[in-house]
Structures are given as C-alpha cells and as structure tokens.
C-alpha cells in the first residue's frame, strides 16, 4: 500500500505544473528559441575555404594526385600535389616540379590534370 502511493507521488512530481504569479493567477512558462547568426549546416564556400582541412563540415584532405605532361616529349607522369622531392620526366630527364614548403611548384610549360 505504501509502495503504490510512493510511485504515484514520484510520477506526479515529474509532470510539469504551471507557476503561480504574485497576483494568484496561473501562467505557463514559455521556452525561448535562440537563433544563431551563422547557419552551421549550410556554410558559405568562402568560409569553408578559410577553415582548416579537419574543421570543415566534411573533413577531407586538400592534397591530390595529378597527371603532368612534359613540355618536351609529351609523356604523362603522375605527381603528388605536395611532392617533397624533385620530379623528373622519365623520357627526357626534364624537371617537372620542384618542392616548396607546401604544394609542389610546376615548371613553366607543364600542363596538368587533377586525378
């Protein structure tokens, strides 16, 4: 008998009740929606380009592989965009790209296609 009454009291306490004003009138508290100034689900392309590669909405690397065509013998060589060594053409031993601090710098006259 006592257990049943305790369960009903516990259920009663979980139900939200109206608050009483000083005038004796009852009112219900309303929830306030806060609106953000920036849309987090649909960021602009400019905002995504400024962010770190892992802090974007969809994290992905900024490096890529590319096919580089030699200006002398027109052979195609696959090169990593952030290559850290000098890449030389196998056909005519022309330098295709040189490393920098980040992306590799292509030599003038070389055309490339992103893979």
From TrEMBL:
GO biological process: translation
Gene Ontology MF terms: structural constituent of ribosome
InterPro entries reported for this sequence: Ribosomal_eS27, Ribosomal_eS27_Zn-bd_dom_sf, Ribosomal_zn-bd
Keyword hit for Cell division: no
Record PANTHER family: 40S RIBOSOMAL PROTEIN S27 (PTHR11594)
Similarity comment: Belongs to the eukaryotic ribosomal protein eS27 family.
Source species, domain of life: Eukaryota
GO cellular component, one term: ribonucleoprotein complex
Protein name: 40S ribosomal protein S27
Keywords: Ribonucleoprotein, Ribosomal protein, Zinc
Cofactor: Zn(2+)
